[in-house]
Design goal:
167 residues, alpha+beta, 4-stranded mixed sheet, 3-stranded antiparallel sheet, 5 helices, 29% helix, Type III secretion system (T3SS) SseB-like protein, SseB_N
Length: 167
Amino acid sequence: MREIPDPGFAGDDGAVDVEVAAALTSYDAAPGDRTRALAATAALQDSRVLVPVVAVLGEVEHDDRGLAHDKSSDMAAVLMTGRDGRTALLAFTGSAPMARWDPAARPVPVSLADAAASAVQDGAAALLVDVAGPVLFAVEGDDLARLAAGERLLRLADGGWGWAGTA
């Protein structure tokens, strides 16, 4: 019998982490403030996010009356393309924000670093968090690359922020 590995989120009820909600609310009050964006990223990196997977039709077969039926389907993570042509992998802070976006999507709990690594692997320019609200947040550019590489965002003694990696 096969064993399914523990993703590390035993007892997760799908609720949004209180610290994540507070950090995103603070960011939403001043979305151009880099310090608030970094604080939100730091809060997210210490919680889990839910990456949605949805059914994608593979093959269709037609019966003797000409009606189409699903023959096969696959499950896939969702990439969204923005008006500027860049793609983003979707992630959600909890099951309620994900259900607002698509009630049929299935949650896959992962760390922010794993979601970032998946985004980079899929060629996405960003990780888009809570696309249906309450607070839309994007992890992109250098922040996305550093998280994907396994680095951690740390609060420095002077109140600033810095990245730390493994040697």
